[in-house]
Write a structure and sequence with these properties.
With 318 residues, the protein is α/β, with parallel strands linked by helices. It has two domains: 21-122, 3-Layer(aba) Sandwich (Rossmann fold); 123-275, Isopropylmalate Dehydrogenase (3-Layer(aba) Sandwich), CATH 3.40.718.10. It contains eleven helices and eleven strands. It has helices at 8-16, 33-44, 56-65, 81-93, 107-114, 155-171, 193-206, 221-225, 227-232, 251-264, 289-317; strands at residues 23-28, 48-54, 74-77, 99-102, 128-134, 142-145, 178-182, 214-219, 245-247, 268-274, 280-281. It has an eleven-stranded mixed beta sheet with strand order 3-2-1-4-11-10-5-6-9-7-8, sandwiched between helices. Strand 2 (48-54), helix 3 and strand 3 form a beta-alpha-beta unit. Helix 1 (8-16) crosses helix 11 (289-317), helix 2 crosses helix 11 and helix 4 (81-93) packs parallel to helix 5. The longest helix has 29 residues, at 289-317. The N and C termini lie far apart (54 Å).
């Protein structure tokens, strides 16, 4: 059997943006090669229409050293990374951008401005992160949440975390995503809190407190992604062995899982933060340009889907 072609899932995401208008994106403090080059390349591919927010002279010097053409891009001057984060959030609040993109500043510095009570762009939904993994040995994109924002999520937090991921899956064309709620085992054990959370989340889905997906758990990782492993454990479930979304117990488990796939299985990990007014492209310094492009593509597709949904709601209201 032929090996799956690496990057084919990301190629499909990037290709899907060709039919969409570029999404206005405030790029926060793009003052290193990786972040500035990714913004320019995503603009060239017409995935995003970037507004570069940061120290203008420094950004122009960097662009010149990298032979990057900024002539068609808007720049907004901000003296340092904190000011850039504040200014970018205000651009979103003013309706002048439909996405945010992290540049060369720490994630906490950007997210602090996003969640600020009076001037931020938070919603009633908890903010959470989703990795969209391109794993060559898995037949479809694999979502992992939350591996970057919520450290020890409560049951209530997990409701928002999983609903955010479900809505992202819908935007990417997965009509009824399959959510595997991970733990160390596939049976409920009062000594392992994540198994109790899994049981509660499944019941909440039955009662429409979580909508738009099939949920099952607790499931160990092997049972979530391998039909053979699920069959050996006699697990009869439409989710087991065919998961789209992996809901991890906590940030440590999710972060280790994503990095194991990245560094041991040569997977790529596009990242996006959801739950704010706009999607946030939250990349890592270790990300290659293709991964950053895929993150931009995911945010663009999600932003367009939200705009369409809002338009339909508006029509119903009229």
């Amino acid at each position: 059997m032929a090996e799956p072609r690496k990057h084919q899932k990301y190629d499909a995401l990037i290709g899907a943006c060709r039919a969409l208008a570029p999404v206005r994106t405030a790029v926060v403090h793009p003052c290193d090669e990786a972040s500035l080059a990714a913004a320019v390349e995503a603009a060239t591919a017409r995935i995003i229409s970037p507004v570069l927010v940061g120290p203008q002279a420094r950004i122009r010097r960097l662009a010149a050293s990298l032979n990057l053409d900024l002539s068609a891009l808007q720049l907004v001057d901000a003296p340092h990374s904190h000011a850039a984060a504040e200014q970018a959030v205000q651009i979103v609040r003013a309706g002048q951008a439909d996405a945010l993109m992290k540049g060369s500043l720490h994630s906490d510095e950007l997210l602090a401005e996003v969640v600020r009570k009076d001037t931020g762009i938070r919603t009633e939904r908890r903010i959470s992160h989703v990795f969209i993994m391109d794993v060559s040995t898995y037949p479809k994109p694999l979502f992992i949440t939350d591996a970057a924002v919520n450290i020890l999520p409560t049951l209530d937090d997990k409701v928002d975390i999983v609903q955010n991921a479900i809505e992202l899956a819908h935007a990417l064309g997965i009509g009824l995503p399959k959510v595997a709620i991970l733990s160390a085992i596939e049976t409920i054990n009062s000594k392992i809190p994540s198994t109790i959370d899994a049981a509660c989340l499944c019941k909440m889905a039955e009662r429409n407190q979580i909508t738009g997906a099939l949920l099952d758990g607790p499931l160990a990782l092997d049972n979530a992604i391998s039909r053979e492993a699920a069959a050996l454990k006699h697990i009869a479930s439409p989710v087991a062995g065919d998961a789209d979304i992996l809901l991890v117990p906590d940030l440590e488990a999710g972060n280790m899982l994503a990095k194991e796939l990245t560094f041991l299985a040569n997977a790529d990990a596009a990242g996006i933060v959801l739950g704010a007014r706009v999607p946030i492209i939250l990349t890592s310094r270790a990300d290659n340009v293709r991964t950053r492009m895929a993150s931009c593509a995911v945010a663009a597709i999600y932003a367009h889907a939200r705009r369409v949904a809002a338009s339909e709601i508006g029509k119903l209201a009229d």
